[in-house]
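Hi U.,

Before I forget, here's the chain from the pilot set. I'm dumping it here mostly so it's searchable later in email.
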Amino acid sequence: MRTKDFLEQTYRNPGFAAIIKRYSGMLLALVAQSAACNRAHHVDERCARWLLMTHDQTGDAAFPIPLEFLAQMLGVSRPHVELSVAALQEAGLISYQQGVMTITDRLGLETAACEYYAVVREHFRRLRD
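Structure:
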């Protein structure tokens, strides 16, 4: 969609404009939370948060995810992610085999995640409502 057409639709349809504004606000809040989380929390907590957010979006306890991609999302090297995944797996919270991540103990993973997960989840809940 061209910019001109998009802007025209937002002027013509206030409901659409409101949805776009709410989504933009939520997205900016998510980016700010992620940046703060990356500075404040250990990679294991951030990894747990990211896996929970992915689980929330996919709706499936098992989803494909390369460790290299997870490392990029967390802003760390792959060896750091391997250690975090191993720790979460050893705790019985996840299982990772052949590129597929499986959440085996969601409540435990929520406990392992940093407090920003609850903040981000609330932003998504408000957006949906």
